[in-house]
């Protein structure tokens, strides 16, 4: 078993990011912290490290329990990491989910073609012929 591995590979293997490229990109953008310090994709982590991921406005925290080279199934993720996100951050996350649902009615996203034409007809300037 390995003692260290790249952080981008670990983030991908524990299903925090869908692809390794997305995990590396998040590291480059400064959204991944190890022990409170921004981590480059090539940063090595070891068992016991605390990984923090910024997903505005929430800062999720995870403890590394084990390392693996392969992507694992969703049921096995709990053996590789432990969620240690603080309760205040989780509350902030829940409030964000509630706010997102209350902003728009279901099915009221983009206007239909008929609604768009009606809107354009309403907004077009009318020129009076003399």
CATH class: Alpha Beta
Order of adjacent strands in the largest pleated sheet: 3-2-5-6-7
Q: Biggest β-sheet: count, sense, barrel?
A: 5 strands, antiparallel
Overall pLDDT, averaged? 85
**Strand proportion:** 15-25%
- Rounded to the nearest angstrom, the radius of gyration is 23 Å
**N→C terminal distance:** 87 Å
Stretches with pLDDT under 50, minimum 5 residues: none
> By CATH's scheme, which homologous superfamily applies?
RNA-binding S4 domain
The count of helical stretches stands at: 5
Molecular structure report:
With 130 residues, the chain is α+β, with helices and mostly antiparallel strands. The protein is elongated and about 80 Å long. The chain has helices at 7-13, 20-28, 77-80, 87-102, 113-123; strands at 5-6, 32-34, 37-38, 44-45, 50-55, 58-64, 81-83. The longest helix has 16 residues, at 87-102. Strands 3-2-5-6-7 form a 5-stranded antiparallel beta sheet. Helix 1 packs across helix 2 (20-28). The protein has 5 helices and 7 strands. The protein has a single domain (5-123), classed as RNA-binding S4 domain (Structural Genomics Hypothetical 15.5 Kd Protein In mrcA-pckA Intergenic Region, Chain A, Roll), CATH 3.10.290.10. The model has no long low-confidence stretch (mean pLDDT 85).
Describe the structure concisely for a colleague.
It is built from 5 helices and 7 strands; from the N terminus they run βααβββββαβαα.
